[in-house]
Amino acid sequence: MPLPSVETHVKKIGFLSFGHWSDTPHSQTRTASDVLLQSIDLAVAAEELGADGAYYRVHHFARQLASPFPLLAAVGARTSRIEIGTGVIDMRYENPLYMAEDAGSADLISGGRLQLGISRGSPEQVVDGYRYFGHVPPEGQTDADLARTHADVFMQVIGGEGFAQPSPRPMFPNPPGLLPIEPQSPGLRDRIWWGAGSRATAEWTAEQGYNLMSSTLLTEDTGVPFHELQAEQIQRFHDAWKDAGHERTPRTSVSRSIFPIVDDRDRAYFGQSSSSDQVGYIDGGVARFGKTYAAEPDRLIEELREDSAIAAADTLLITVPNQLGVDYNAHVIESLLTHVAPELGWR
Predict the structure, then answer these.
(1) From the record, what ranges are coiled-coil (predicted)?
(2) CB 323 within 8 Å of CB 20
């Protein structure tokens, strides 16, 4: 499918942390407490540096960030401008009503800066882990169906419409009519993203009215470079959005590992890290993974100029090696914002 030419434009640039911790000598995050507190500190540092977003992965049964809302609320309380999000919440695990209460509260604490990425989720650490959380797909449905059903309920209730029959003998007086989930945060519904790993899912995402969070991998391979396949995915999303007749302008994001090499630390960590696309298998199916960009700024600028998916998206999330600590990751963000982004027209 031929793609139209896309001019690079000013972008929102944030970081995406996987939130790993390990009790090893080379890790700056030895415990869950380290990861949580450093995640907050990195968001504060990123805001001070002029970045636009702090996003966090969500994984269960792993030494990584899990329940996101306490962290999102804490980041919201410590910052004033930066967007705060997830990439992504696995909706198979979620009670959508309780999640709506958490999301509304975190969004109000942040002053309306929440950008929630949700999806079916990524490969799990355990077999059907969502079942341990009490969620089982109904007969004849898949776990993907379960995730989309939970997402449908979540989107309905954050819209504020009443649905619960009030008690005739309430503890406190009720307003008239059916009761909604509380608290409500106006505008949150337009700031929900779906993490899409294929072109077909991107089209479905547009039809549902979600923003598009293009995955760090795509669960299909057509033989073209990752960035071209991802750019096609974004174009299909925009086409489907237009066909659906939605009134607002949607947002799209891509994630990349980008390391400007500007000093000896960068050279030691990432001097040999530049790579090419990889094709592998996820959950028994083929998948294409994007490359790591690591080079001196001049070379990096030329390589990134050829990335058609970054050019097509309005938001770029930089995956950070969180176990290297806050100071080093702030340095990576600053290097990108200072030495690379202006030359590419992202700033």
Answers:
(1) none
(2) yes
End-to-end CA distance of the chain: 31
- The per-residue pLDDT for range 158-216, each reduced to its tens digit, is 999 999 999 999 999 999 999 999 999 999 999 999 999 999 999 999 999 999 999 87
Alpha carbon distance 203, 197 (integer Å): 11
HSE-CB of 183 using CA atoms within 13 angstroms: 12
pTM of whole model > 0.85?
A: yes
What does DSSP assign to residue 250?
A: P
Residues in the chain: 347
Distance CA 118, CA 98 (A): 15
- The pairs formed by 19-26 with CB atoms below 8 angstroms and a separation of 24 or more are 19/56, 19/57, 19/59, 19/64, 19/65, 19/322, 20/63, 20/64, 20/322, 20/323, 21/63, 21/64, 21/323, 22/63, 22/323, 26/323
Residue at token pair 């960009």 = 293
CB count within 10 Å of CB 296 equals 14
Let me know if 284 is exposed, middle or buried by CB neighbors in 10 A (0-12, 13-18, 19+): exposed
For the domain spanning 12-344, the CATH number is 3.20.20.30
Distance CA 174, CA 188 (A): 24
Residue 339: other Cβ atoms inside 10 A? 17
Instruction: Work out whether the CA dihedral 332, 107, 151, 230 comes out positive or negative.
Output: negative
Residue ranges of domains in the chain: 12-344
The DSSP symbol for 189 reads G
- What CA dihedral angle connects 266, 42, 251 and 310, to 10 degrees? 0
Strand pairing report for 278-282 and 292-295: unpaired
